UniProtKB/TrEMBL annotation:
Keywords: Membrane, Transmembrane, Transmembrane helix. One of its GO terms (biological process) is steroid metabolic process. The keyword 4Fe-4S does not apply. GO terms for molecular function: oxidoreductase activity. PANTHER family: GH26015P, SHORT-CHAIN DEHYDROGENASE/REDUCTASE FAMILY 9C. SUPFAM superfamilies: NAD(P)-binding Rossmann-fold domains. InterPro entries: NAD(P)-bd_dom_sf, SDR_fam. The keyword Chaperone does not apply. The chain crosses the membrane at residues 34-55, 62-83. This is Uncharacterized protein. It comes from the Eukaryota.
Amino acid sequence: MQPNLTNKRLSICGWKKSGNEKSKLVPWDVIDRLVVPIICCHAAAILISGALNLLRISQVSALVLFILFTILTVSGVFFYHSLTISPLGKAVLITGCESPLARALVKYLDDLGFTVFAGFKKLQDSDDAITMKETSSGRLKLLQLDVTSEVEMLEASLYIAQHLPAGEAGLWALVHCDLWNALGELEWVPFPVLRKSFDVNVLGASRLTQLMLPLIRNGKGRIVFLSSALAHLPSPVRGVLCATQAAIEGFAVCLRKELTPRQVGVSIVCASELTAGDAWLDDKDMRDQAKTMWGLLSEEQKNTYGEDYFEQAIRSLEPFCYGDGDFQATVRALSDAILRTFPVFRYTPLTCKEKFQIIAAEYMPSLLYDILFKA
């Protein structure tokens, strides 16, 4: 009886039970926060040790000073990094709750005590929404929210303003988890699908941010964008997704500079490629899209590419439908961006391989990169 209940709870949250439950992903946000201070400790140790020796005040070595400064600095950084806000009385809006990753975040924040507004593209008759409501607290509010619909976004903003926790002036956090995944090489993707991808991933997120900014500004809150490693990694057959993810990251970088003087924070969570695929890519949707794309190609295009090549390209995406995405690492990063008193701008719950590949893609000569990382 107990195992079944546990499995149901894991299913609701979006987490998978697997032998690979222990995260292989590295807490890069902590490492990124420590790099510059440790470098400064090293420089300070050399300068102070040299000055003390030159003035014959002390013969202390630079190594001893470096160790001392590092211990003090690391302790200070960990204390600074671990400060959190109280979730009680704070409201969070999360879009794209059809995805298991977004549902996992909703459940986690609801358990902490946040008032969560969960946005669904199709709320009516949604089994996921019904299950979420049954297993969550009374603070959870379900919303019909399609980010391509101006009317639904306006209605959502009014509903949220009217149902904020007592005494709260505004919204604490807006988390963009909604995504439309367009698959295939550019020539295969129908233009309506291409347009919808940008409408949902970029324009919808931008417009919803515009509408919610007064509430977020009143609450001195923050905006969190869920991105993917594909924003930095070239990936044929997923070029449209790469473009939209890069666009949303560029938008977030500029938005952060615009809103910092208004005491509104902005963070990006650049999720692992497999995590993002598991959250946003469904095997049935992939096969349906592939069938539609092939049917819309002209005879000349079909002869040029061939059915075997087309099928092989689509099959290359199967690992992102069945892979064991580490939702826990991504949910932890998203919740950190919401909970931390001083969140970092960019969270990267990535594997070491993905982190290295991103650095290589940005700084390595393209010819060498293409040889080392064949797409």
